[in-house]
């Protein structure tokens, strides 16, 4: 009865429901979930009825969803059935575990390559007349060879699997120009609408309280805290954790006696703690810095990390976009990002468009010289410079933040997304939406 009532309401308003196919509603495990959450808020603010599938939901997730105007759909589990929820529940067994999807779905949204297959199957088997939209986040050909030989050998299969899904979509939104280039030829050949999607920083970060702490500089040996994020085990080469640790070790030796240097890494699975610590300590060979490994955290946790650090690093050897770097810029904390990222391309474009050449200051040009430690040396030079000139770096970061947010670079791409979902971004709807965008309003 509830769904039927919602259906009648939406028909009167001329809007259907949007189903976001995701495995979680929290944002602790990376960019896909963060973008899914921000998209949910954008849709509800525009007046859409939004439903989001999850495999599990904490009490905090429930509260956040209610605040954002999103209806969470959790799996149905038979009594005595104790299997751990998995993506198969959404993909192969959605009719069993998610029988209670709303009847009036007009648009289904999936994310490559986590829930794209599930979104496609739900559309084909239950909502054939709904529009299928997908977000592109990954380019396996760029990233897999930094993980393992097995992953590298499987690139062709993974690319083919992704193409099988996105080729059936009505519209694909690639996160950043780098991913858009990767899939554009295939999608044009298959006549699938294809657009660039530019994420907007969450208000959690754009309203962060970041400043250079003058009082802390009065002690004999001030602290300098460097933050990096993301899983280490099996992706240390891809994410550049080896570069970060090796560079920090060099900086610690050069600045010995001037500062107490700390390296914090947020996003470690508790099962990977020992091995992740070993990987980092192998590069921190002088013993001057002991890494602090922190578990997966919410956006609020990461914001607090940023408020208490002097520099955020994103040293990836390949990064399709790089949301954490964008969040750091929005928070107003000094940041260094790899040139091999979609974010670096966005910054280059904005620096030219806004005539702000200093935007490029945060991009680190890499040599690709892993064997002789050349890249670690390059990062060490840049890290040392930022930490020694922290006061002026914080001032520059604050100015960067203000200009980036004032540019509203994200608006055009997000309007296209609303239109693709059949939603008109009505300002009056946003005003009526209450807390729908409490953390991400325009």
Structure commentary:
- With 442 residues, the protein is α/β, with parallel strands linked by helices.
- It has two domains: 2-200 and 410-432, Glycogen Phosphorylase B (Rossmann fold); 206-406, Rossmann fold.
- Helices cover 46% and strands 15% of the residues.
- It contains 21 helices and 13 strands.
- The strands form two sheets. A seven-stranded parallel sheet has the order 3-2-1-4-5-6-7, sandwiched between helices.
- α3 (59-68) links the parallel β2 (49-53) and β3.
- α13 (241-254) crosses α18.
- The longest helix is centred in the C-terminal third of the chain and has 18 residues, at 390-407.
CATH class of the largest domain: Alpha Beta
From the structure provided, what is the oligomeric state, counting identical versus distinct chains?
single chain
Give the proportion of residues in helices: 40-55%
- What does the largest sheet look like? 7 strands, parallel
Identify the notable features of this structure and list them briefly.
442 residues, alpha/beta, Rossmann fold, 6-stranded parallel sheet, 21 helices, 46% helix, disordered N terminus
How do you describe this structure in short?
The protein has 442 residues and is an alpha/beta fold. Helices cover 46% and strands 15% of the residues.
């Amino acid at each position: 009865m509830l769904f039927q009532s919602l259906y009648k309401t939406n028909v009167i308003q001329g809007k259907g429901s949007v189903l976001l196919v995701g495995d979680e509603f929290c944002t602790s495990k990376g960019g896909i979930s963060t973008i899914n959450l921000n998209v949910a808020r954008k849709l509800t603010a525009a007046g859409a009825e939004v439903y989001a599938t999850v495999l599990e939901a904490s009490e905090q997730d429930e509260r956040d969803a209610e605040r954002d105007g999103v209806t969470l759909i959790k799996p149905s589990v038979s009594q005595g059935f104790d299997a751990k929820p998995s993506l198969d529940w959404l993909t192969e067994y959605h009719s069993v575990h998610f029988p209670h999807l709303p009847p009036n779905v007009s648009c289904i949204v999936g994310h490559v390559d986590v829930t794209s297959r599930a979104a496609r199957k739900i559309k084909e088997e239950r909502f054939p007349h709904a529009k299928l939209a997908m977000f592109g986040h990954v380019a396996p050909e760029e990233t897999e060879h930094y993980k393992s030989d097995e992953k590298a050998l499987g690139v062709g299969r993974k690319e083919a699997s992704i193409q099988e899904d996105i080729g059936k979509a009505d519209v694909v939104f690639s996160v950043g120009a780098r991913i858009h280039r990767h899939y554009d030829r295939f999608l044009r050949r298959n006549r699938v609408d294809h657009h660039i999607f530019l994420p907007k920083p969450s208000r959690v970060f754009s309203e962060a309280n970041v400043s250079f702490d003058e009082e802390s500089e009065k002690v004999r040996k001030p602290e300098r805290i460097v933050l990096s994020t993301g899983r280490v085990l099996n992706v240390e080469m891809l994410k550049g954790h080896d570069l970060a640790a090796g560079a920090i070790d060099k900086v610690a030796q050069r600045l010995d006696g001037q500062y107490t240097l700390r390296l914090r890494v947020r996003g470690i699975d508790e099962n990977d703690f020992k091995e992740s610590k070993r990987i980092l300590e192998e590069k921190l060979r002088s013993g001057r810095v002991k890494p602090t490994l922190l578990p997966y955290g919410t956006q609020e946790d990461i914001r607090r990390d940023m408020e208490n650090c002097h520099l955020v690093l994103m040293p990836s050897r390949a990064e399709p976009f790089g949301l954490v770097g964008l969040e750091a810029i929005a928070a107003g904390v000094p940041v260094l990002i790899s040139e091999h990222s979609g974010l670096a391309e966005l910054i280059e474009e904005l620096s030219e468009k806004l005539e702000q050449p200093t935007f490029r200051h945060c991009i680190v040009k890499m040599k690709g010289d892993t064997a002789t430690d050349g890249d670690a040396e390059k990062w060490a030079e840049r890290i040392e410079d930022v930490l020694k000139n922290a006061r002026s770096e914080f001032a520059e970061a604050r100015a960067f933040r203000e200009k980036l947010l004032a540019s509203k670079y994200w608006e055009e791409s997000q309007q296209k997304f609303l239109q693709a979902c059949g939603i008109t971004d009505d300002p009056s709807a946003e005003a009526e939406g209450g807390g729908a965008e409490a953390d991400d309003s325009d």
